[in-house]
Each structure stands twice: as C-alpha cells, then as structure tokens.
C-alpha cells in the first residue's frame, strides 16, 4: 500500500503531530458530548489517559494542577465516622452516585457508594502525575477496600457489591499496593496462583484459566508479577522464553492482541511493554511499529485510533503515545512499562515512598 | 422513545375547534393532548414525592459529559431512588430506562438485581430482557455479568449454548461470549456437544483462534491429552487444517502447545512429518516449530546417551539454519529476534558465554 503513495505523502504519514495531541487531551479534559455517556462511571480512567498522555508529551503545563487534584480527591470514598464502610473505600470513577462534592472526610453514609479498583488505581496514578504527595489519601482505608475485593481463587472483583472477576483487577490491585508501598492490600501468593493458572497452552495469558490468550491480559499478568517482584519466582526460564515467543509473534506491522486478529494501536503498548519487561522489545521491528501507529494518527483532531481511518479516543491516543515512547520517539518522555506512568512520575513515587519510610523509621514505628 | 403520560384527574375544557377529536389533556395550557409526548420524571405526579439528586462535580468539573435534559432527568431520579434504597416497581421500571441511556453503568445493574430479588420478579422475563440487551450490546461487561447472575439464580443454563452460539454467529471471536460459554460449560457440565460445536466453527473459519482455544479447553477437561491415540488424532487434525491453510498461527500454536511439555522431540515421527510439510506448506510458524523441535532435542540430549556429538552438532546446525532462514527471508519482521535466538542457542550449547541475562524490573 505504501509503495503506491508519493514520497510526499509518505512523509506526511510519518509526521508526528505533537501539538494536535496536546489539544486532543486538553479537549478531553473539558467537556465530552452525550454520546460518551458510557464513559460516565469510568471518567477517572479518562482523566488518567489525558494526564498521563500530556505527561508523556511533556505538556502538563497546559493544565491547572490544583483544581484537577481537588476534583480527584472529591472522588475518594472515605471512611464514615464509625468506619463501618472500610471495605468499600477507595476512589469512585465519577460523581454518578450523587454524593455531594467534598474533598474532605468524614465519609458520607450511602447505601450504594463504594470505590472501584480501576478508579483507585488510576486515581492514585493521576495524583502522582500531578505531583501530589498523596497525603490526603486514606491509605489504610484504600487497602482495606482492596482486601475486600479479592476472591478465594486470587482474582479481584472491581467493586465490593460484586462484578466480574479477572486478571485486569489483579493488575489494578498490584499497582495500588506498589504505589502505596504496602502489599497488605492483597494475598500475593493467591494472586500469583491465579496469574500462573491463566497461562494458556499457547504461552500467552488469558483473562483466567482456560481462556484465550490475549495481549492485554498478558500485560496484566507480566506487569503484575514485575510489580510484585516475583517474575522469576513465578515463572521458569523456559516459560518466560515461551511467553517471549508468544508476545513477539504478535507483531504484524503494529501489534495485534490475539493470533489471526487485526492489528490495533493499543497493543503497541500492551504487547510492547510486556516485551520490554521481558527484555526482548529491542528485537522487534521499530520502523514497522512506528509506521502503523502513525497511520492511526488523526491529523485533524489529534489523538490515535485503533485502526487507520477510524475515530480517535482517549485510550488509543494515550497508548499510541506510549507505544511510540517505547520505541524512543524523540519528543516523548520515557514510560515505566509496568506501572504505565512516565519515568518522571515514577521517580516522584519513589521519592514519596522514601519520605514515608523515613518518617516511619524516625518515629520508631514499623512500616 | 415511548413516553409516559401523567394523566391528571382534572379534565380541562378545550377552546379548540370541536371538529377535531381531542382528548382530555393533563395540564392547563392551551394545547393539544399528545400521548406520545415524553414527560420528564420531574413533571410526573407519581414521582412528586421524590427530590431529584443531581450530579455534583464541584466548581471545576473534569471530563464533564454534556447530558441532555432527558438524560439528566432520568439519572437525577435514579440517584434519588438509590439514596433512599427504594424497593419498588417504579424503581425497577426506571432502571430499564437508565440502562437504555447507559448500559455500562454498573450501579444501575446492581440496583436492578437488588430489586429483582426484593420484588421477586419473574426471572424468565429477565432472561428475555437481558437476551435482547446483549444482542444490541454484545461487548459490554455488565450485561454478561448480569446474565450470569440470572442464570445462577434460576439454576438453569438450558438456553445458554444456543444463545451464545447466536452471538458468536455475529462475531465469532467475541471474548465475552467465549468466557460466558466456558463458565456455563464448566459450571453445569455441558461438555457433550462442545467439540462438535468447535469443529463447526473451525470449518467456517480455520483461523478462528478462539475456536482453537475452545478445542483445547474441551479436550483438556474431558479426555485429557495423555492418551497416545488421542494425541495422534489431534496431531492429524492439526496437520490436515495446516494443509488447508498453511499460514495459520492458531493451528501451529495448538500443535506445539499440546506437545511442548512432553517435549517436541519426544514425539516419534513428528519431525519427519513436519519436514515433509515444509516442502509444500511452508510458513514462519512451521519453521519456528522446527526450530523448537531441534532446540528440544538439544536440551534433552544430556538425558539420552545414544546421541553422538556428531548428531548434536548436526541438530545445532539445522536449528541455526532455520534461524537464518527466518531472519533473512521467511519472517524478516522478527529478524533481530531470530538472530538473538540463534546466538542464545549457540551460547547454550557452547557453554562458554552465558545466555543474555534477564533483569526483573521493579
């Protein structure tokens, strides 16, 4: 297809339009039309895509950090006076339940208000990206809320009232524990068992045991094990080599998520980051990957779509940038492949944790 | 969208032309009564006892979705019901409207389930309802979870396989559908016809990776893969499909996956069969499979006393040839990977340099 185009068009196609992407994320953070209604309960994840995207673009200066931090804290489900709701604490995806806006405790008693594990994860990420020190996060409450979500088989629900349970929420849980530097939020051994049980006969990971292997779930599996510091304990060298092979076979031009499926921009990150964590991303074809990602760039409104000539959305816009960052696109910040935030934001997390450990140590308390 | 009417007790005399057939209207305006006009909940008499609860994003909302009046009205009343934890038929009816506006709102679905139980609603009717919703929105997590809950309450999976088959006929790789199917089969032990179902799908599309996965799922949970006759049957099945469509990663992944733990080189005659196939039905997957056979032979050589140094050297040479062929000709997109594998294999066999180490990232 490319050979038939003129040289000029080829150049156009590979031109990375930084400013368009900045404006795309800025607009995302403002107002979305009603047809985006299905994103209501997950608005905090959309904020994360936009903020982390702007961070990768080194363009966080375009937003008002303070007001954004306040809004994120308004989504925290805090303990009530009597702490009866600890198992429901964490962060909400949005104000959709109708709790009156508040950035302080104590929590409001409401029969249906609870956190959502993916929102707690992206909420914490968003706060650290904005440079917040997490001092207003009730960490113990978050961890109590997290413990309430884990099942006997090691997987997690998304919400305490019940939902589907699978490997995605193990990744969210692992990220939360990692950032809060506290693994009391989960039974790690059980989580590892669920992960290794999800390894398919073809050496990718499915959403659970027996299920079809998939680039997204493979990322969740490997990234979780890395965050836990248990990659080589949980998987043998032979298994790791086989997983490397499954992952690297996903490259077709860009990457797809399952054998015999079409390529999709977001897998340039899900599979690319997995390969990076397994130390073999360097052996992929950077040119073809880059060409595909840029072919899904929307030259008018900015952002990236899953396929060429499709509508861009915040998720693909963010993961497209991360995919480019992995291959070393010059104007982009490096992304921490397991935590899925910039290296810069990750260093902020490390500094915070250092501070917490020092203050715990100086008071003679056990961390 | 059908509207609900709030018919007041008062009938108002119209000053309209009596030629027109006009019905009693429900408000004091000089208007025709239109039974199809949608009425906001805030204007419905039977909802007047409830104070609507708006969303409150504070002074500086982020990623605000610009809802229409109708949307806000429905959800303002949903939030009011939720706050009071009202258990009523009107609440149940409203959840359906809320779902129509946003079927991804998991709180609405949860509340609907609470009401289904509190009001002891007809679960068979709920099955019909959720069937229709999934047909419209088959890639939504909440609808499949809801269906699973209803099936569990009814303890009746009898409609499931047919329903899922219908969804798969529209998208044969729908991950939610396959997941639900596996749950139903495992939970209610509905294994009997599944292999047949898989083969039908593979006949329609031999490259359907989900169907290959399902094949493995069924066999591993029923007969297992230990019996040699069964393994041979599966090998033959794979090779037949590969002959029909050589460039099919799924078939090769299945073949390798089935045999990799016992060791590819331990299957008598397999290498030869694949080498024959190489002449007429070559693909990157076939070549990678050969490489894995040779690698397995080299790894297990320490256990076998009857492999001469000469044989091992030959096997290594063949493996490296395959890497070279893949890197430079047959799978060039993965050139660097195949060259890396070749180097690693050489190092492992050479025992001088260690293979490149892997660092855990944390």
From TrEMBL, chain A:
**Keywords for this entry?**
Magnesium, Metal-binding, Prenyltransferase, Repeat, Transferase, Zinc
- Recorded family membership: Belongs to the protein prenyltransferase subunit beta family.
Source organism per entry reads Pagothenia borchgrevinki
Describe the location of the Prenyltransferase alpha-alpha toroid domain by residue ranges: 16-341
Q: So what EC number does this one have?
A: 2.5.1.59
Q: Which CDD domains does the record cross-reference, listed alphabetically?
A: GGTase-I
Quote the protein name from its UniProt record. Geranylgeranyl transferase type-1 subunit beta
Q: Which residues cross the membrane?
A: none
Q: Name one Pfam family in it.
A: Prenyltrans
Q: PANTHER family per the record?
A: GERANYLGERANYL TRANSFERASE TYPE BETA SUBUNIT, GERANYLGERANYL TRANSFERASE TYPE-1 SUBUNIT BETA
Subunit structure, interactors included: Heterodimer of FNTA and PGGT1B. PGGT1B mediates interaction with substrate peptides.
UniProtKB/TrEMBL annotation, chain B:
Query: EC number(s) for this protein?
Result: 2.5.1.58, 2.5.1.59
Q: Which reaction does it catalyse?
A: geranylgeranyl diphosphate + L-cysteinyl-[protein] = S-geranylgeranyl-L-cysteinyl-[protein] + diphosphate; L-cysteinyl-[protein] + (2E,6E)-farnesyl diphosphate = S-(2E,6E)-farnesyl-L-cysteinyl-[protein] + diphosphate
Q: Which Pfam families match?
A: PPTA
Which cofactors are named for this entry? Answer: Mg(2+)
The record's section on Gene3D superfamilies has:
Protein prenylyltransferase
Q: Name one GO molecular function term.
A: protein farnesyltransferase activity
- Tell me if Repeat is a UniProt keyword of this record: yes
Q: Does the keyword Kinase feature in the UniProt annotation?
A: no
Extract the signal peptide range.
none
Keywords (A to Z) from UniProt: Acetylation, Magnesium, Prenyltransferase, Repeat, Transferase
Q: Which domain of life is it from?
A: Eukaryota
Membership in a protein family: Belongs to the protein prenyltransferase subunit alpha family.
What does this chain do? Essential subunit of both the farnesyltransferase and the geranylgeranyltransferase complex. Contributes to the transfer of a farnesyl or geranylgeranyl moiety from farnesyl or geranylgeranyl diphosphate to a cysteine at the fourth position from the C-terminus of several proteins having the C-terminal sequence Cys-aliphatic-aliphatic-X. May positively regulate neuromuscular junction development downstream of MUSK via its function in RAC1 prenylation and activation.
Subunit architecture: Heterodimer of FNTA and FNTB (farnesyltransferase). Heterodimer of FNTA and PGGT1B (geranylgeranyltransferase).
Please give the PANTHER family that the UniProt record associates with this protein: PROTEIN FARNESYLTRANSFERASE ALPHA SUBUNIT/RAB GERANYLGERANYL TRANSFERASE ALPHA SUBUNIT (PTHR11129), PROTEIN FARNESYLTRANSFERASE_GERANYLGERANYLTRANSFERASE TYPE-1 SUBUNIT ALPHA (PTHR11129:SF1)
Q: What is this protein called?
A: Protein farnesyltransferase/geranylgeranyltransferase type-1 subunit alpha
Q: Which classification does the entry list for the species?
A: Eukaryota, Metazoa, Chordata, Craniata, Vertebrata
